Amino acid sequence: MTPQDCSMRPWPPEPSGLEAALTHLQCLLVARRARANPEGVNWHQYDVLELLWARGSMRPSELSTALDVSRQTTSKALRVLKDLGLVTQRAAGEDRRELSTSLTSDGVAFLARIARGRQDIGQLAASVLTEGEGVLFAELCEKVAAAMEAQPAR
After folding, report:
1. What is the tally of helices (H) and strands (E) in the chain?
2. pLDDT per residue over 15-62, tens digit each?
3. How far is CA 148 from the centre of its chain?
4. Is residue 88 within 8 Å of 104, Cβ to Cβ?
């Protein structure tokens, strides 16, 4: 193929119908998440909040291990979350150097607001899909998610 032949192909290539639909849905989901998250909490920070909600107070080292990230990455996330008032830290036990991290009432309210957004999207989907379509859509989403988790991003 000559360079001239390459210039004749559109770039980027036209997406398939499936790719276009996935891209459109992703854009809408991200836009809704951004509206529900004016604080700008990123995915890792959100994971920290969810883990604290699920397990209660934790030390930063426990958070790092549970999320399989470096201590430095967790420390950065905790600094932002503390500045936003979503978590608090207190000395844990006898060793005053180790801190215990927990959600604040604002942190709980943040997670509740995000959960309401997820519920709203779920109710919207349920309102336009039959029960069978909803079950199939959920199965297909899980199938694609599992394939994405099994294959490293390029």
Report:
1. 7, 2
2. 889 999 999 999 999 898 888 899 999 999 999 999 999 999 999 999
3. 15
4. yes
Chain-centre distance for alpha carbon 34: 11
pTM for this prediction: 0.74
The pLDDT value given to residue 96? 66
pLDDT at 136 over 80: yes
Do the Cβ atoms of 44 and 77 come closer than 8 Å?
yes
pLDDT in tens, 51-81: 999 999 999 999 999 999 999 999 999 999 9
Task: Please tell me the distance from the alpha carbon of residue 59 to that of residue 128, in angstroms, as a whole number.
Answer: 44
What is the phi-psi region of residue 16: left when phi exceeds 0, alpha when psi lies from -120 to 50, beta otherwise?
A: beta
61 touches 110 (CB < 8 A): no
Q: Which amino acid type is present at position 55? A: R
Among the listed residues 54, 58, 56, the one whose alpha carbon sits nearest the alpha carbon of residue 71: 58
* CA Rg value for the chain: 21
Neighbours of 17 (CB within 10 A): 7
